[in-house]
Amino acid sequence: MSEQPTRADRTRQVVVVVSHLVGVLGVLTGVGVIGTEVSESSSGALSADATLLAPAGTAFSIWSLIYALLTAYAIYQLFPSTATDPRHRRTGYLAAASMLLNAAWIFVTQWGLLWLSVVVIVALLLVLGALVARLHDRPAVGAAEALLVDGTFGLYLGWVCVATCANVAAALVGYGVETSQGVGEVVAVAVIVVVVGVAAALARRGAPPGGPVPPGAGAGPGAPRPPAHPRFPPRDPRGGQRAPLPPPGQEGGGGLPRRPAVPGL
After folding, report:
1. Contact 69, 155 (CB under 8 A)
2. Which residue from 100, 131, 192, 197 has the least number of CB within 10 angstroms?
3. In terms of pTM, does the model score above 0.85?
4. Cα dihedral value 24, 70, 122, 167, nearest 10
5. Count of CB atoms within 10 A of residue 16's CB?
6. Rounded distance, CA 36 to CA 55, Å?
7. Can you spell out the DSSP letters for the chain?
8. How far is CA 60 from CA 54, 57, 99, 125, 245, in A?
9. Contacts of 115 (CB under 8 A, 6+ apart)
10. Burial class (CB within 10 angstroms; exposed 0-12, middle 13-18, buried 19+) of 109
């Protein structure tokens, strides 16, 4: 009999859906339906030509795909089979937090608070990094889980890394950092190095400790070893070559009996 969803499971599912609806409200604000477009907010500091790191306007179309996937995820996590899934129990509230932080970022930029927007987007980056690391701990089972959960938040995290670079650069320029060609390039490179460092730390956190385990790594000096086959003696530890076979008739008691020679053969 399958495990029945608990009240905590149902609460988590509702929180995710409500957070997604708040995120949709943020999107409608950011695209100009009920607010100012992000590219025009904060006195244009986030426009496509504001800094060297600002993505082209067409690049923001990726948000359409991200929000389509987030919508599919919000519906998928409502299924009874996912309500009690340990992956969803460990990541549901992080997913909800990422949606709320994304909406908060849009609202903050509407008010022109660039440095606060940096704080929000860095928090979003850390939340998504923790979420993806937890997903890595329990690999997805099934194509739907891999696409709607791992695919959604992997793409989300990747784009937020890019957006963090652009946001930090925009905040620096917005607060009077020199924008000449040489200084602008230095600032751009510095921002990229910092964000790449954060991404590398997140990736390292999600990897197994010490990296992949090579075959036979646990076979230390004190570990038991399988007995050697009598016709394939163990290697000589001094030179890496196989130890010589014993003379005929002097094999150990565990060796195979020698077949007597047949005349004429």
Report:
1. yes
2. 197
3. no
4. -60
5. 24
6. 18
7. -PPPP-HHHHHHHHHHHHHHHHHHHHHHHHTTSSS--GGGSGGGTTSTTSSTTPPPGGGGGHHHHHHHHHHHHHHHTTSHHHHT-HHHHHHHHHHHHHHHHHHHHHHHHHTT-HHHHHHHHHHHHHHHHHHHHHHHHS---SHHHIIIIIIHHHHHHHHHHHHHHHHHHHHHHHTT---SHHHHHHHHHHHHHHHHHHHHHHHHHHSPTTSSPPTTTT--TTS--PPPBTTBPPBPTTTSSBPPPPPTT---TTSPPPPPPPTT-
8. 10, 6, 17, 17, 71
9. 171, 175
10. buried
Q: Is residue 182 packed enough to be buried (19+ CB in 10 Å), middle (13-18) or exposed (0-12)? A: exposed
Q: Using CA atoms, how far apart are residues 44 and 50, in angstroms rounded to an integer? A: 7
Type of residue numbered 187:
V
Percent of the chain whose pLDDT exceeds 70? 57
- Assigned token pair, 241: 């070559």
Q: Report pLDDT for 98.
A: 97
The span from the CA of 126 to the CA of 132, in Å, is 10
Helices 62-76 + 7-30 axis angle, to 10: 160
Whether 91 and 135 have beta carbons less than 8 Å apart is answered as: yes
Would you state the pLDDT for residue 96? 98
Could you report the per-residue pLDDT of 212-247, keeping only the tens digit for each? Answer: 444 444 444 444 444 554 444 555 555 545 555 555
